[in-house]
Amino acid sequence: MKTMTEAKKMREKRIKIFSVGIGNAVSHEEILNIAYSEYYAFNHIHLDDIYNQLIQDSIDVSCTVCVRNTEADIIILLDVQKNQSNIEFQYRHKAIEKFLKVLNNDRSNKRVGMIAYSDHADYIFKLSWLNNVDKLIGDANNVDIDKVSVQSNLSHTLQFVGVDAFSNSNGGRLSSRKIVLMFSSLNSEYSAEIRDQILNLNKSDIEVIGVATGHDEAILNHYTKILLDPSQLLFISDDSRSDPFVCLKVLSAMMSYHTCNDTVFQIYP
Fold it and tell me: The VWFA domain covers which part of the protein (predicted)?
């Protein structure tokens, strides 16, 4: 609590606070509450983003060498297998709706797509602009749990995403930052295969973020096994004392970031 109070005092004095999540128990809500804004909340995987933001904040505001990039393509994965809690499934729906509204309010250069999967993957909508966000939210909310009990094949779905979801013909852009946001009720039997697919996506510059809802320790543990870093897990609590979806704002820094070329040191030695 004292840390939050002191951080608030520093923000009021317009002191730029960078907050970086490292380790096995990253609280994204805490990182956001400490940072100057959501654009100053990072995970350590994006070291270049932190470095370039530091440069941008240290030089003349009129500098044109450091450019803010807001081009991002995001694919949402929703597990629809029958063998899951209906309450948790509806909570994931609510989280997806909240996320789409946050993206829409951001007014930046983002496209979002959604895939529902169990033993196979189906597009709910391919990468799309957010100018008709109400339709996208409606399409997302119409997705229901499978009627037939089959086992989810997340490994196959991630492979499908890498091959198809970000392709130019499906709305993908070569220069965009690519992110997969995964809402899953995980099965530990296939953790190794799933992690291999996440590694393959990472080699193609596609970052996979896990979103856990509620307090299901088994799912949290499974996410820990498959994600490349613990800071890539966002935890949406069902604690009614605070906004449970605030952790989604940490994605803002991943989707809006500076790039600076080497000439900045010639202009500002």
Answer: 73-255
